[in-house]
Amino acid sequence: MNAKPNKRFLQALAGETLTPPPFWLMRQAGRYLPEYRETRKTAGSFLDLCYNPELAVEVTLQPLRRYGFDAAILFSDILVIPDALRQQVAFREGEGPVLTPIRSASDLDGLDISGMHDHLAPVYGTVKGLSQSIPSTTALIGFAGAPWTVATYMIEGSGSKDFSNAKRMMWGQPELFARLMDLLVEATGQYLIRQIDNGAEAIQVFDTWAGALPETEFRRWVIEPMRKLVDRIHSERPGVPVIGFPRGAGILYQDYVAETGVDGVSLDSSVPLDWAAEKLQPKCTVQGNLDPILVVAGGEAMDVAIDRVLKALGRGPFIFNLGHGIIPPTPPENVARLAERVKSWRG
User: Are 67 and 339 a contacting pair, CB within 8 Å?
Assistant: First the structure.
C-alpha cells in the first residue's frame, strides 16, 4: 500500500522498519484515566457511551493528548454487532456483558442484518468525527471482534471460562453454528467497510478467544473467517491494511499469518520474541507484546521488559503495543514512562 508519508503507524504496516517504532496501546482509552471516568459518568451506560459520537470522540482523544500515540483506535465495543443484529445486549457493573443467548434455530432466526447500519450510524459518526479531529500524524484504526470470539458471547450469553455452550453447538449442531458464523462474517465485513468509508485508515480484528479452539477448529473458525474478511477489505478497499489478533494461538500464529493475508499480526504476551522475529516478522508487520501487568507494576521491571521487546522486534517492521489491553488499575504515570521509553529508543 502507499502509506501516508507523515503517519508512522501506516509506514510500519506497509513494511518499513522505523526507529523508534510507532506505538499505541490496546484499550488506551479506558478506566485507568481519570478524565475517561469523568466522561463515562455523563454518558449513562457503557453502550450509551459507545453510541454517543461526541463523547466517544472525546474519550478516544484523551490518551492522545497525554501520550502522543501514533494511532488512535475507534472507541466502541465488539458487541455492538450482536446488538445491531437485535440480540439483547447489556453491560452490568461488576458483571460485564450479558446477552440473551442464542441456543436454537429460532433464536438465530430472530437476528436481523437489515437494520444494522441504521443502528450503527452513531459508530460511523464517531469514526468520521475522529478522522477530522485527530492530529495529522496520527493514524485512525477501525476495529471489530472476529466472528468466533463474538459468537462465543452470543451463544454463552456472557463471558466464559470454557466456552462449553459455543463448543457444544459447534460440534453438536454444526449447521446452526455455521449459519451463525456466516452471518457474523457478512455483518462484520459490512461493518468494517463502512468504518473505512468514514475515515478508518487501518483495521484491527480482535479474536480474543482464538486460543480456546483445537487446531482443526482453529483453522475452520479462526483462520477461514479472517481470510474472508481480509480478502473483502483488500479487494473492496485496496490499500487499507488489516491487523489480526488471534490471542492465544501459540504456534498456529504462523499459519494464521500465512493463510489469512493479514498485513500485521498482534502478538499476545506468551509469544516468544525471537520466534516471532524469525517466523512471523519476515511475512508481515508484528505488533506487541508487553504484558499489561508490567505497566501496572512499572519501575525497572517494566523498563527491562520494554527494552527486551524493542531489541527483539525493532530490527524489522514493528509496532510497539501490549499483549492485551491496558487494565483499570494501571497508573497513568507508568503509561507516560512507557511512552517516553519507546519514543527515546534508538536501537
Answer: yes
Domain range for residue 175? 8-343
Q: pLDDT at position 243, please?
A: 99
Beta bridge partners of residue 150, listed in sequence order: none
Tell me if 150 is assigned to some domain. yes
Active site residues: 27, 31, 40, 77, 153
DSSP 172-220: HSHHHHHHHHHHHHHHHHHHHHHHHHTT--EEEEEETTGGGS-HHHHII
For strand 242-246 and strand 202-207, is the pairing parallel, antiparallel, or unpaired?
parallel
Asked whether residue 102 is assigned to any structural domain, the reply reads: yes
CATH number of the domain enclosing 305: 3.20.20.210
Q: How far apart are CA 6 and CA 157, in angstroms?
A: 43
Cα(201)–Cα(231) distance, integer angstroms: 16
Instruction: Say if 1 falls within a structural domain.
Output: no
Average pLDDT of the segment spanning 228-253: 98
Number of domains in the chain: 1
Reading the block at residue 58, the C-alpha cell is 472525546
Q: Does 2 map to a domain?
A: no
The model's pLDDT over 119-137, given as tens digits with 9 standing for 90+, comes to: 999 999 999 999 999 999 9
Flag whether the pTM goes above 0.90: yes
CA–CA separation, 158 vs 167, rounded Å? 14
